[in-house]
Design brief:
about 140 residues; alpha+beta; OB fold (Dihydrolipoamide Acetyltransferase, E2P); 2 helices
Length: about 140
C-alpha cells in the first residue's frame, strides 16, 4: 500500500472512532416519570416549586443542595444536587437538570438555568436619523 492510502485509512478510523465516542455522551430530554425506568442520564426541563423548601447549608455540607421542581409534564419531584447552590437560583425562569432517578429522588450532576431577561420591564432606546437630525424614541419593553 502507498503511504497516502495508509494515511487515509488512519484518518477514517479516527473519524469513525470519534463518532462512536461522541454517541455515548448523548443525553435525551425526558420527564421524571420516563426517567424512572432508565439507567442512563437524562435531561429534565422544568420549573422550581417556590412554595416547597430548598435546603442548602454551606457550613454543614457545601456540596449538598436539594429542591423540588416540576417537569414540563406537571410531575413534581425532589432533586438532589451534589454541588454548591447556583447563584440567583430562586430567580430562574426555567431549570434543566441532568442526572438519574434514584427511587423517588432525582440525583442530578448538572444544573442549567434560564435567568429572567433583564430587559423585560426596562425601556428600550431606539435611535433614528431623520434628515441628518438624531431622534430618540423610548418604547416600553415587550
Amino acid at each position: 500500500m502507498k503511504k497516502l492510502h495508509i494515511l487515509l485509512l488512519a484518518l477514517m478510523a479516527v473519524g469513525i472512532g470519534m463518532v462512536i465516542a461522541m454517541s455515548f455522551d448523548w443525553t435525551t430530554y425526558s420527564t421524571f416519570n420516563k426517567a424512572r425506568g432508565r439507567f442512563r442520564a437524562v435531561n429534565i426541563s422544568g420549573y422550581l416549586v417556590k412554595s416547597k423548601e430548598m435546603y442548602y447549608n454551606p457550613e454543614k455540607d457545601p456540596n449538598f443542595f436539594s429542591f423540588t421542581m416540576v417537569d414540563d409534564s406537571g410531575t413534581e419531584c425532589k432533586v438532589v444536587y451534589r454541588g454548591a447552590k447556583p447563584q440567583d437560583f430562586e430567580r430562574s425562569e426555567k431549570i434543566v437538570v441532568k442526572g438519574k432517578m434514584d427511587g423517588d429522588v432525582f440525583r442530578c450532576s448538572e444544573i442549567s438555568m434560564k435567568c429572567p431577561s433583564k430587559y423585560v420591564n426596562d425601556n428600550i432606546v431606539l435611535k433614528e436619523k431623520e434628515n441628518s437630525k438624531e431622534t430618540v424614541t423610548y418604547k416600553a419593553g415587550p
